[in-house]
Amino acid sequence: MNMHTLRSNIRKSRNAFIGRVLNTQKNLNYLKDLESWGSLEIVNSSEAYIEYRLI
After folding, report:
1. C-alpha–C-alpha distance, residues 35 and 18, integer Å
2. Looking at residue 6, what is its pLDDT?
3. What is the mean pLDDT of residues 8-30?
4. How many CB atoms lie within 10 A of CB 9?
């Protein structure tokens, strides 16, 4: 996964752009790293998917 993949998964939801990826340990670790750098915010997570918002 990379930033290009994250951007291509974005859809407009209300006033925010929300993306969704499968909830795997690799994806979760990658998104948490990006969240710590301030690149995105994890909005919601379930057993199947992680939703995020690019900042």
Report:
1. 14
2. 83
3. 84
4. 15
**Site of tokens 């939801």:** 13
DSSP state of 23: -
pLDDT at 55: 82
* Token output for 23: 């909830």
Q: What is the spatial order of strands in the sheet that 49-54 belongs to?
A: 10-13, 16-22, 49-54, 40-45
What are the DSSP calls for 26-48, one per residue? HHHHHHHHHHHHTSEEEEEE-SS
At residue 24, does pLDDT exceed 80?
yes
Per the CB < 8 A criterion, the answer to whether 6 and 18 are in contact is: no
